[in-house]
Amino acid sequence: MQRIIVPVDFSDTSAAAVRFGTYLAETMNLDLNIVHVFDTMLSTSQTISNRVRELEKERIGKQLTDFARRNVEPVLSTFQGRLDLLPNVKTAALEGAAAQTILWESTKEDVALIVMGGVGAGAGLHPPGIFGGVARTLALRSGCPLILIPKEYGYPQVERLAIAFDGVDDIRRMAAFSRRVIKALHPEVHFVHVREQDHLTEARRDDEFLDLACGANFPSYTYKFDALPHGKVTEELLAYTERERINLLVLGGERRSFFERLFEAGHLAPLVKRCTVPMLIIPFDR
């Protein structure tokens, strides 16, 4: 059985991530693992005995169990009558460096998805801002699809989903997982593209998109195509998600072409900090 991992730091955004992860685990028929990564070396310069380390792990484990129960149960209660389909929920306190530990978890074959708070959305624990660095690291290097939850996000609801792409190869590489999400959530699907200045290139891309859309492996049978004017990719996407009331923005995870334009220095933090909807980043095969 595949699973969703939700790393938490006990912030309000982590609570929203747990709710969103629970929602997806139920609708996509996945198990749910809620984890907190702690590193005793970050909180003290003194040598920590194994006994003290185990006590700290036990304390965090109890806090994590309570945190998970408070945020999982309200979501599962909306699926009354389908108890045979409810996800298996587990919690775990893991010791180590947060980014490296979660990256390692993302490479495991049974991990389908990670859901966590984005840049600037954490509680500022051990040390301040650690989850911002984790979000940046996972966005660029995660071994599985990643959803970043924005600060002050409410109850999970995905009625409109937008897949942002540069060329049709981006859509092909995202197709398998995006199709799985669309099949589970049944949203209104948009494909969004920020145009470049070269009109001949854009005309060719339009033709390639239409050819792909007529094929059997396209992510959705029904969709809307939204071509945005040439401009700064981040600004155009931010305005678009608000204007079209998009609930989930889907991006391909590769450090070239569209992904490079979007996540090069100076773009990642503003987008994640300012985007008011969850972002699903699907890594391409490396």
UniProtKB/TrEMBL annotation:
One Pfam family linked to the record: Usp
Residues annotated as domain UspA: 1-150
Gene3D superfamilies, per the entry: 3.40.50.12370
Domain of life, source organism: Bacteria
Assigned protein family: Belongs to the universal stress protein A family.
Name of protein: UspA domain-containing protein
Lineage: Bacteria, Pseudomonadati, Bacteroidota, Saprospiria, Saprospirales
